[in-house]
Amino acid sequence: MASRGVNKVILVGNLGQDPEVRYMPNGGAVANITLATSESWRDKATGEMKEQTEWHRVVLFGKLAGSGERISA
User: Fold this and answer.
1) Which residue from 7, 16, 31, 63 could staple onto 21, CB 3.0 to 4.6 Å apart?
2) Which residues have a Cβ under 8 Å from the Cβ of 59 and sit 6 or more positions away?
3) What CATH class does 16-71 carry?
């Protein structure tokens, strides 16, 4: 059987909108954020600058969700 591990991802980008924070019946916080990450490069064939943006939907739970409320401040 394969062992389970933890994957760590670091996203650096721009918020698409203010975080949406809600609370579960047990009082735990959940925050939804949209984050845009972009990369740019020069096309080797044309010399033209290109840019590509990817959107990420991120869900934060517990203490991280509480920090989500302060992200846009």
Assistant:
1) 31
2) 30, 31, 32
3) mainly beta
How far apart (Å, rounded) are the C-alpha atoms in residues 11 and 43? 25
**Dist CA 36 CA 12 (whole Å):** 8
Could you count the other beta carbons within 10 Å of the beta carbon of residue 8? 5
Rounded to whole angstroms, the Cα distance separating 51 from 36 reads 12
Distance CA 43, CA 51 (A): 10
CB distance 15 to 35 below 8 Å: yes
For residue 2, what is the DSSP state? P
- List, for residues 3-49, the tens digit of each pLDDT value: 688 888 899 999 999 999 999 999 999 999 999 999 999 999 999 99
